Structures are given as structure tokens and as C-alpha cells.
Amino acid sequence: MYDVEDNLFLLAGPVDLHPRVQRAMAQPAHAHRSPEFTEVNRELFELLQDVYQTDDPVLCLSGSGTSAMDAAVGSLVDGSDMVVVLDNGKFGNRMAKLAHRYAGEVTHLEQAWGQPFDLATVDQAMHGADALLFTHNESSAAFTHPIEDLADIAEGHDALVIADCITSLGGIDVPVDELGLDACVSGSQKCLGAPAGLSFVSLSERAREQLHEHPSYYIDLPQYLDRWQDHQTPWTPATHLHLATREALRIVLEEGLEERFERVHRVAEATRTGAQALGLDLLAEPEHRSDTLTAVEVPDGIEGEELLGALKQEGIVIAGGQRHMSGEIFRVGHMGQVDVREIVAFYANLEGVLRDLGSKVEHGAAAQAIHDELGR
Amino acid sequence: MYDVEDNLFLLAGPVDLHPRVQRAMAQPAHAHRSPEFTEVNRELFELLQDVYQTDDPVLCLSGSGTSAMDAAVGSLVDGSDMVVVLDNGKFGNRMAKLAHRYAGEVTHLEQAWGQPFDLATVDQAMHGADALLFTHNESSAAFTHPIEDLADIAEGHDALVIADCITSLGGIDVPVDELGLDACVSGSQKCLGAPAGLSFVSLSERAREQLHEHPSYYIDLPQYLDRWQDHQTPWTPATHLHLATREALRIVLEEGLEERFERVHRVAEATRTGAQALGLDLLAEPEHRSDTLTAVEVPDGIEGEELLGALKQEGIVIAGGQRHMSGEIFRVGHMGQVDVREIVAFYANLEGVLRDLGSKVEHGAAAQAIHDELGR
């Protein structure tokens, strides 16, 4: 029987919460302008800079990842700008919608979900462009763009780089200053391991110089930047989410960024190995497969919905495909705290479910392949 | 010594959380598109309609009260509209900023903080107007507008009524359908007794007909309305705040709306009586004094900051004045679950603090006056 509070939670975000993060919310109300809460913000803002690997401000919005994406594009791009946007998945498409809403001219490059862009084509499209917009880790297709190459292309055209790193930052190395990202967007409930409801955006010096009033009052970044140095937000923050996210970021940094990226990569490799050991195909091309989630093609003869439903009955929560990929793929999230243990547990259960559904897979095949790979 | 987690919390929002609300957040991560979480939303949305006293949709945004104010004004008002806005406090002024951002023409009526508007003047200003915008309960001055009169004036001019009821709804009777409010905005952390981070807006049929794309993508109400009937939000919601707010609304309705408004009124009367028994003056005019918080003038010879600091050392959290009223007034919140017990406790402690600061007040004077009034 499925229990909403007790299960193996491998979603592509929100992610499982560490008990410490859970406990951080077990607090009475706080006065959000008090010195005590200002200190919460001070530490939160500083931890965000550490995780972002930047000396620039990282602003914190009470709102989902989309709010910070919207805030970044709308505060940096206006009707006088020409921008290039990369769209090869659901979130790249959302970025394109934002580009069309705020920019004067948009070069909207499209690819099939999970397919990479030809870098020379991107470079060519960037002639005369003011900004390059893309989704670093496209979770709808478990696809990762080569962020360094894209940032270099934008730099070559003296254009701003606005990157949606919602499902990469804290799980895949995104050294914001080193890469020269002008605005890097992230969210609380993905690789950072906090509950949903906060989002973040860094602003390089160049971005701060080009910052203008956002058409919306609520997500107007100049007002956030103005209050940032005093460790405040312009509007009442979601206090309990600030407390939870502070604790989540402490955990990220206690593990260590480098160690975390290594673990996430090791878990991703285990996930890919396990799928292949069961004869399942992966969606994205090898060199673009994401380390924070894996998209697996539903085998022929099995209904995607039925597979997800059967897993859920076993108490296993994973994600299905979105939009036209619904029923075609399933997605295993390995962001946040997920370790090899849980991936092995997932495949051991998946094997049973696949056999129930008539697929001929061997018990233990995934675990064996994963352990072989790890040299156990 | 002040303890951030253990104190008498009488802020003008956020408010003290009921232990049940606190516990509602003590949950692991939820899959926000699952049938189980859809059921959380279904109940949350229905409870919102009950508290709003409306059959119309009440949309739920992950963002502070300002996000829903911005969403309402920007989705209902555009450059072709002339609007009238009432500004006699910090939040009326914020509403005016929103009006100036989105409307073609703004008649910006101003009054000193806590001073009422002449209704005939408002009526005259409404000639040719498309909407009337105001803050029902102006918490910066503990002032309440006569919402029925204002709604009637707008109706007489066939104009939309957009009301910020962030610090009134759930504490003061706001029967949205009966009053004919087209958009009624509220927030989670005030009279509803939930943590900060969610905000709400109702939309009348007339409002839904006039709804247009908001300049911002994130707070674009047509997208929220589109998903509302399926008990969904367009973007990932702040799941833990949905759970907490659902529990808070259950508590509101278990008490009963009428009983709650009567309690809040009784507590407000007690607060006003206590202040007057100590010879302290109240800011707002008698017929406009708010039932959800009280603004008291700091007595001559006492520094407002010193008074607040001394109270805090006793473990008592109240609000100071905002902007130019800083140091001039203190504000006692009695939203949410606050009862007479806490007001009596507040004054008993205030008496001691005032005596410490050199003011001649009698021990027990406030409690005696309050109990006399209650016929105890």
C-alpha cells in the first residue's frame, strides 16, 4: 500500500528532505525584520554565495524557480534587446516564453528533447545578440548542456549569459564566477535539498550595471538587490523556508562541494549502469546525460503509466515523462542526498515490477552491474 | 533574556502558529503533481472559498502578499484603464505604486496615516474610473476602511473593486460575494494563522471576464485560473506551506467565522481598553480602529525604540511604527489565535516596563479595566 509519508522518494524534485532540514522548520513564527531573523538571512545569503562559488550577490525570492527565471530575464532583458534562447525540452521552452515576453527580438533555436545543439550554429546565431539564455540541466530530458562552451560563446559576443541552473546547482559543478555567468537561477527543492518555495539568482557586476526595473513589482530585482546588503528582502519572506534552506545549505557545505559533485556523479553512473544491465535504453546522448536525474525509455510492450503505478504501490516514487514524453520515459531523480544504496534498492524493486508486467529481467542484474562498476 | 523561540508573540503578522499548524509542516517531501497532493490542494482551495465566503475561484500563489496584490492589479488593470487608489498608510502607498505601474491614468487620493477619506470625494473621483483600489485594513496605522461603503461607490460607477484584505480576511468579516469584491487579496501569515509565504486572490465573474495576461509570467493570473479547476498551480507550489495553510484554515473554520470575528473584536476592545486605562492614546479615529491590530502612541518622555527593546528583553514581541511613524507608535497585533489572556499578559508586563522607564502607571490598571469591560 502506498504511504505518502513513507516511501523511496526519487523524484526529479522536490527531493527527500534530510531530517535536519525537516526539523529546521519546526519553529514558532519569527519576526522577519528582527535582528535574529536578519542573522538567519545573513548566513543564508552567505551560504548561497558559497554554493554558487561567487563573490557576487545571490538574491533570494519567495517563489518557485520560475519566479527567479522570470525575475532574471525581465530585469535584464527589454524591448531593445536581441537574445538567443536554446530550447530542447520543457524548461528550455519556458525560458523561450520568457524571452519572447521581454526581448525585442528573439532567435529561438529548437532541438528535439534530449538532443544537443551544434555549437557553431549557436555561435553564428549570437552575432549582434545581447544575451544567451538556456537551461543548463534540462530535467524533462535528463540532458545537460556544455555550460562552459556556451558561456565562452556568449563571452565572445560580449553578451550576457542567463542560465537556468535550477536542477544542476549544488549537484553538478557550476562555478558561477569562473564560468562568467551573469545571472544564474536556482531553486530550493532540487539539488540543494530544501523544501519547495524559494528561488535564487546571482548577478554579476555586468548584470548589476544593466539591471532595470522589471515590469512586475513583486519580482523586481533592483528592489531585492537594494535590500540584499542589509540581509533583507523587500517583501515578507517565507520565514520557515529560509530556516529550512539555511540548514540544507549547511549540509551541502559540510559534505563539501567537490565531494558532493563526485557522489552525485557516482550515483548517476550507478543509475545508468543499472538501467543498461536490465536492457533499458537511456534517452539522452552519452556525453549529455545528466548527473542529477536519468531518463529511461519505457520498454516495448509495457505501458508507462502502469509501470509508474506498480512502482508506487511498492512505495517507490519516481517521475514520468512530461508533455509528449508522457508514457514514453520514466525519470529517476538522484539530486540532493540520494546515494547508491537507494539506487540499488530502486532497481531491486524495479526488477520485480518488470517481471510482474511480463518483462524477462533477472533478479539482481542491476545491483550486480552497479557493484561490479564500483569494484565491490 | 530574549528567546527567539519562546516569547509572547503579538506582531502585526507573521502571527503565532498553532501547534497543529506547526506539526502540519513536519512532513517529508511530497510529489506536487501526485493525486495525494492534488487532494491537499482541493481541500485548501475549498477552505479558501469558505473563508472568503465566495463561490468564485480563490487562486493560491507561492509568494508574499505583495505577489498576489501585484498579480491582481497587473492582471486586471492595463494602460487603457483609469483607476482610483486610496493611500493613507504604507500599504495603501504600495497599492498606489502598483496602480501607477499598470494603469494608464491614476487618481491617487492621499490622506495622513490613520485618517479616513471623505466618501463624497471618493465618489466624485470615481467618475469614469474602471477600478477602485484600496487596502481594507491599513496595518501601518491600525486603520480600517468602511469596505461596504467603498464597494457600493465602485458599484455605482460600474467599476472593479480590487481590495487588499491581507490583514483583515479571517479576522474581520469580509463577505466577498455579498460585498461584490472583484479581486480580494490575502496572505497566509496574518489573520489566517499560517506561516508566511503564500498569498491568495479571489476573482469575481466580472473580473474573470476582464482578466488579461500579466506583464510578468510568474504571477500571470490567467495561468493560475487555468489550473485552478484541476486543483493545481501552474508552477511548483511551496508544498509545506500548502500543508500548513490547509491546517490553519481548518482551525479557522472549526472556530467558526462568526465566532472568530466576535473573538477578534472582543480582543481588540480589550487591547484598546487596556491602552486607555494606562493613559495611552490610540492612533486611529474611534470608528476606524482596526480589530486585528492596535496602534498606540508612545507616551511623551519615552523613546519608542527603548520601549520596544525593554519589552523584548521581557520576551514580548510587538511591532514598532513603520517609516515616519517609527518611534512614534507601537503596534500590538491581535490577529490569528490571540485571545484576551495574552492581551492581559501583555499589559501586565507593559506596566512594569513603563514604570522602569519612569512612567507613572498603576500595576493592574489595564487588567482591571479589561475585566470590568468584560463584566468579570
Description:
With 376 residues, chain A is α/β, with parallel strands linked by helices. Chain A has helices at 19-24, 35-52, 65-76, 90-102, 119-125, 147-156, 176-179, 205-210, 221-228, 239-255, 257-277, 304-313, 340-356, 365-373, and strands at residues 8-9, 58-62, 82-87, 105-110, 131-135, 137-138, 143-144, 160-164, 183-187, 198-203, 293-297, 316-317, 319-320, 329-333. Chain A has two domains: 8-14 and 256-373, Aspartate Aminotransferase, domain 1, CATH 3.90.1150; 19-255, Aspartate Aminotransferase, domain 2 (3-Layer(aba) Sandwich). Chain A is built from 14 helices and 14 strands. In chain A, strand 8, helix 7 (176-179) and strand 9 (183-187) form a beta-alpha-beta unit. In chain A, helix 3 (65-76) packs parallel to helix 4, helix 10 crosses helix 11 and helix 11 (257-277) packs parallel to helix 13 (340-356). The longest helix of chain A has 21 residues, at 257-277. The two termini of chain A are 33 Å apart. In chain A, 58% of the residues are buried. The mean pLDDT of chain A is 97. Chains A and B meet through helix 3, helix 4 and helix 10 of A and helix 3, helix 4 and helix 10 of B.
